[in-house]
């Protein structure tokens, strides 16, 4: 038997969670809360920076390659506060000179000159939650914007000079037809942003939709929709580099790629998750911050932002690696599996043989390759790696 592989450091990213929204959408199970009263902008940014400081000893000397400010609705925060946040981050951590710095924005929350100010604050990529360009569907989804505001928001982001833009669309919406889905897709593709996240609407536990499920397209119609959408994306030069993310070659999201490649990330803000490799101890540590915004803010007094810190046991690493990595279309090098999990490839021989016999992966001397069937039955494929 060859020697045990050594855990090596993957690239490092930073995720910042902003937990407030104007209203809570009925399908959403993210840690987001309808804002009641005034947004505690200054207090929250101060809490985020103190929170970040507590993680610094674990990532000493490492360069951060991407930052993602997500939510919730980060665009509720003014450009001035986003600038304070970014300069605070730069003062505490070395950011790579060409770091991708993304902010999510919600079309219903931004007056148009604000995007220019976000760009000047240091944001270089915007992810807009368009969801649909059909006002009726937007109403069903409980969104605060209509089709006209969605178009105006995309135009404003483009006019502000952003070159890297993602548009989020959801599909298989209540009562949606294939033609309506395709009209949404054509509408966003016409803006030539180079990146579209195309999420099938799922009914998540503990949401308003779970309590009162709307009528969704059945499995057959959903499959036809995904095939029709894939044809349109391909015709426009977009590839499915991740299960729900389509991009032109130079527009892949570096931040999301790092998650899916089982990279490391610090996660700060209410409910944020982090994952950091500690080579000296040969361990991987996961953290989760306090979820409820006021508990998180109150933690600024005691500096106890972290609700949970756990070591990822070797027996769980293979599943965690494949849960992320199999979302990507790119083949998986055996050497990446070994250096990112610290496990020998023999550890996954049995689930891989099963996956191969089911036609879900192909194996070469250097790589594990997910097949089209593996992409279609991704959940089943991932489950094979559960210890
Ligand atoms: C955290 S949200 C952030 C964007 C921003 N808050 C907004 O909604 O405009 C990220 C994206 O996840 C998608 N999403 C959220 N809940 C979903 C669900 N139940 N099914 C499918 N997609 C979902 C939406 O497209 C949403 O834009
Ligand atoms: S705006 Fe975005 S994060 Fe907020 S509730 Fe709606 S989908 Fe969730």
Structure characterization notes:
The protein has 387 residues and is of the alpha/beta class. The chain has two domains: 12-258, Alpha-Beta Barrel (TIM Barrel); 314-387, Winged helix-like DNA-binding domain superfamily/Winged helix DNA-binding domain (Arc Repressor Mutant, subunit A, Orthogonal Bundle), CATH 1.10.10.10. Helix content is 37%, strand content 24%. It has helices at residues 41-55, 79-92, 114-121, 135-140, 147-159, 178-189, 208-211, 219-235, 254-260, 293-298, 314-325, 334-341, 349-357, 372-376, 378-383, and strands at 12-18, 20-21, 33-34, 64-71, 95-105, 125-131, 164-171, 194-200, 239-242, 245-247, 264-268, 273-278, 283-289, 306-311, 332-333, 361-363, 367-370. The strands form four sheets. It has a nine-stranded mixed β-sheet, with helices on both faces. A three-stranded antiparallel β-sheet has the order 12-13-14, with no helix packed on it. A three-stranded antiparallel β-sheet has the order 15-17-16. Helix 3 links the parallel strand 5 (95-105) and strand 6 (125-131). Helix 2 packs parallel to helix 3 (114-121) and helix 6 (178-189) runs parallel beside helix 8 (219-235). The longest helix has 17 residues, at 219-235. The model has no long low-confidence stretch (mean pLDDT 96). The chain binds S-adenosylmethionine (SAM) and iron/sulfur cluster. S-adenosylmethionine is lined by residues 27-28, 30, 70-71, 73, 104, 106, 129, 131, 168, 170, 199, 201-202, 204.
